[in-house]
Amino acid sequence: MKSLYLLVIFFGFSQCASTQFDKTPPFEIESATYTQWVGGIEGVSGKSIQIKLSKKTTIAFDSLFFQNKIMKIVVENSEGTSFLIGNYSTSTKQKNELILHSNPAMESKNEIPKKKKFPFSLKKNEAIIRYKIQGVSNYYKIENLQKTSSKFFQ
Length: 154
Hints:
The chain is mainly beta.
């Protein structure tokens, strides 16, 4: 029983160290910023991350990890350069209606919230880009995203 317990602990720690960050990725970042945005309706808000590359690229960018959120990267090409864009909502507006009823059987129809485990420990201004080359996932850590002024939409 002890050996099984030690084996589980060993595999748990080996998974934490398994993610290696690229030191020299096949792209060069010119700037990396994030912006808080507020919508025209009360409670609607989010954050937008924009990473400007020094030149246009054909790399398959997959995901962006930032402030305990995982988002898909959208690549936009403009004027000979590529922009990696990620957005996520911080809205306080309730999306799904909860059923509150005196009969507990009616409340059992409510969805159980799903909490995904965030795979990295990052500072507030750090992000990780996941990209694929020949089907292999690679990771690059950006250590100093600059916060820009908030945007307000009507």
